[in-house]
Amino acid sequence: MDAVTKSVGSTVAIRSSRLSFLFDNERFLGVLMIGPAVIYVLALVGYPLILAFVYSLSDITVGSTHFNFVGWENFKNIIDDPDFHIALKNTIFFTFVSMLIVVVLAKILALLLVKDFKGKFFVRALILMPYVAPISLGVIGWLWMLDSIYSPINWLLQRTGIFGPDFWPMWLGTPGLAMTSIIAVHVWRMTPLAMVIMLAGLSSIPQDIQDAALVDGAGYFRQLFQITIPMMLPIIMVAALFGILYTATDIIIILVLTRGGPYESTQVLVSKAFYTGIDGGDLASAAAIALFLFPLLLAVAIFMLKIARRAEVT
Each residue of 76-99: pLDDT tens digit? Predict the structure, then answer.
């Protein structure tokens, strides 16, 4: 009986020593900890990406039970499509202008909210509301405010005398105003997130550097452009990168407000892929349009991360 007990005890000791060895191994622990996240990302992003690539090389349609591979024919067809060129230009313009305004506004709000003042918590909560609230409900509210007949914005601007009595702009019915409207709504949506990232960057600047600048007699704008912005450049690049990726792949605002109109003036690549694949039933062409964004966004991400890395080094 003692021999059996000793053998069992030695076996348990060996197993526990092996487990302790594994859990003391940093390489094993790293793989163990990051493994679930990698599996989740591969299942959520990797599989749809591979499936989209396979579809883009085929002639698959909605409801088809089989498909044939056609090579790069779908990519050639969309490149020859004039509507695709319009959607690509709109995507670049919408993304660039939106993110430029978002970064500037977020920086201004972060500089204001980093100071202590009465009601600071309430102001922060109020600014964060557009990002916290469900985006569909917020955009539906904007759809009413930009309505061609019952727009309270037009009514208010007429009452205040900014608009004349005979001037009633069609915000979502005129090409230029429609693009301006979706940019404004997207800025309203994304500014709070960028502001939070900027606030984190401002709080990470050492106080002794700012105190030394004050002692040297540096004014506000000199501190802003020679200390604050250079030290926050990596954070600004990260905020801009998140915004670009989100803006270039966002469809909710366009889907609710304009559906790509009028006259394709607000059609972007994501919405065109949606309408081509879901409404038009051409999954192959839709996959090709959607994949066209991938190398563009990858190049932008690599470029901006390199700038952020250089800023951290310097």
Answer: 999 999 999 999 999 999 999 998
Distance CA 147, CA 153 (A): 9
- Classify residue 227 by its DSSP letter: I
Q: Would the pLDDT of 103 be above 60?
A: yes
Across-strand partners of 58?
69
Indicate if the pLDDT at residue 30 is higher than 80. Answer: no
Which tokens belong to 107? 């920086």
Beta bridge partners of 69: 58
The neighbour count for residue 168, using CB atoms within 10 Å, is 15
pLDDT given at position 63: 79
- Same domain flag for 236 and 182: yes
Does an H or E element contain 264, and which? none
Query: What's residue 12's pLDDT?
Result: 45
- Tokens representing 165 are 């009595």
Which amino acid type is present at position 219? G
Contact 74, 284 (CB under 8 A): yes
Count of CB atoms within 10 A of residue 134's CB? 9
Let me know whether 46 and 192 are in one domain: no
Structure tokens at 268: 């972007």
Residues 277 and 285 sit within 8 Å (Cβ to Cβ): yes
Question: CA geometry: angle at 83 spanning 139 and 75, to 5°?
Answer: 110
Number of domains in the chain: 2
Q: Whose structure tokens read 């709070």?
A: 192
Which amino acid type is present at position 293? L
Please check whether residue 142 lies inside any domain of the structure.
Answer: yes
Tell me how far apart the alpha carbons of residues 4 and 82 are, in angstroms, rounded to a whole number: 82
Q: What's residue 292's pLDDT?
A: 86
Give the per-residue pLDDT at 272.
92
Measure CA of the first residue to CA of the last residue in the chain; give whole Å: 70
- Asked if residue 226 and residue 86 are part of one domain, the reply reads yes
Residue 227 and residue 116 in one domain:
yes
> What would the pLDDT profile of 201-234 be if each residue is shown by its tens digit?
777 777 777 767 777 776 767 777 777 777 778 7
Q: Which domain holds residue 200?
A: 72-313
